[in-house]
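Quick check before the chapter quiz. The format below is the same one you will see on the exam, so make sure you can read both the input and the output lines.
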Amino acid sequence: MNEQALALRYSVLIQWSDEDQVFIVTLPEWQDRLIGAAGHGATHEEALATARISLEMLISIAVERGETLPEPHQYPLAA
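Here is the expected output.
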């Protein structure tokens, strides 16, 4: 599976920051490998695009280094 397809399996948390006046991106499964947020964007769409790029880069780097990828969280379907 390529980095783009794999990136879609990970959780992305996007939250507005009053202090920074941007949407902040957090990647829950990758928090132990990151210092701070994974990115940001002026709009929700920009933040989501930043998240996808960040995930693809994190996956690519981990694969190149032979590191184990974190397991994507599994959530039940909403009823």
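If your answer matched, good. The beta strands are 13-17, 22-26, 39-41.
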